[in-house]
Design a protein that fits this description.
Largest sheet: 6 strands, antiparallel
Distance between the termini: 14 Å
CATH topology: OB fold (Dihydrolipoamide Acetyltransferase, E2P)
Strand order of the largest sheet: 1-2-3-9-8-5
Strand content: 25-35%
Order of helices and strands: EEEHEEEEEHHEH
CATH architecture: Beta Barrel
Helix content: 10-25%
């Protein structure tokens, strides 16, 4: 599995790329491979304010539906509209073109509580 060192991670298999006061959020390669072929992605409306660990949407695959969780508190400033017509981007490029939400963070220090690559790899090893 690809676990880039420049990202942060959650135990619920979201990845987070910090860009200034914005967190770009998607699901990890592990998550998308476990889900199978993604057929639908439900994302929040821009402007929605989320609390840490709040459900922000869901991913539906041929196997199951899985909730997405906000890794930190903030306001949704953008969603990946391409996923509406091409949910399969989550499978083909989950950590690039398949990103899901951009969140303006309330407090950038919240990222300190997230997993680094080594911590996420340990979660995967324990699974």
């Amino acid at each position: 599995m690809n676990v880039p060192a420049d990202l942060k991670y959650t135990k619920s298999h979201e990845w987070i790329r910090i860009d200034g006061d914005t967190a770009i959020i998607g699901i990890t390669e592990h998550a998308q491979s476990e889900l199978g072929d993604v057929v639908f992605v439900e994302l929040p409306e821009p402007g929605r304010v989320l609390q840490a660990e709040e459900t922000l949407g869901s991913v539906e695959s041929v196997k199951t539906v899985s909730d997405l969780y906000a890794p930190m508190a903030g306001e949704v400033v953008e969603v990946n509209g391409a996923l509406t017509g091409q949910p399969e981007l989550v499978n083909s490029d989950s950590m690039g073109e398949g990103w899901m939400v951009k969140l303006k963070m309330n407090d950038a220090s919240d990222a300190d509580g997230l997993l680094d690559a080594a911590g996420y790899e340990a979660v995967l090893a324990d699974a």
